[in-house]
Design goal:
- The chain has one domain: Trna Endonuclease, Chain: A, domain 1, CATH 3.40.1350.
- Helix content is 35%, strand content 39%.
- The chain has 4 helices and 6 strands; from the N terminus they run ααβββαβαββ.
- A 6-stranded mixed β-sheet has the order 1-2-3-4-5-6, sandwiched between helices.
- The radius of gyration is 16 Å and the shape is globular.
- The termini are far apart.
- This is Restriction endonuclease type IV Mrr domain-containing protein.
Length: 154
């Protein structure tokens, strides 16, 4: 049984890396349309503090064109995105500056994405100030309503 669990873990980890690899190149393109120039992206950014760990699927760093303010985009992606995943992302965003202190002086914007979205997840994420992305053909698209203003974590 232990072997089966390890094999399943390897498969799901491989699928997760595939999804992250698909999403990462889309982030600079999507946020350029929103007036943010992304200059750096990282997959699986991990920080450890006092035996605790925070892993960010995709971390993007850039600057808003309107006011030149530095921003960080925190992206959490799942193959099947549910409300529980969004709740976890919100907790990660609340703890982000504690774990990634090098970005303390930057505003943080949250993004959740999934290949499939469970019922109600889009509305829940938007209500909590997160961008929602999903694949459409060969690209990722933002699903938020026109005029959406994201929550800024400082």
């Amino acid at each position: 049984m232990k072997n089966v669990g390890e094999q399943v873990g390897k498969i799901t980890d491989g699928w997760g890396k595939f999804v992250e690899g698909f999403v990462e190149p889309s982030i600079p393109v999507l946020f350029k349309k929103l007036g943010i120039k992304i200059t750096e992206t990282y997959q699986r950014a991990i920080s450890h503090i006092n035996g605790r760990e925070l892993e960010i699927d995709i971390l993007a760093v850039g600057r808003r064109k309107s006011d030149r303010k530095k921003v960080v985009i925190v992206v959490q992606v799942q193959s099947n995105l549910g409300v529980r995943d969004v709740k976890k992302c919100i907790i990660d965003l609340e703890n982000f500056h504690e774990f990634f202190s090098a970005y303390r002086n930057r505003e943080v914007i949250g993004v959740v994405g999934g290949v499939r979205l469970t019922k109600g997840v889009k509305e829940y994420a938007e209500r909590h100030g997160l961008y929602i992305i999903r694949p459409s053909g060969e690209n990722m698209v933002i699903l938020n309503k026109e005029g959406f203003k994201p929550k800024i974590w400082t």
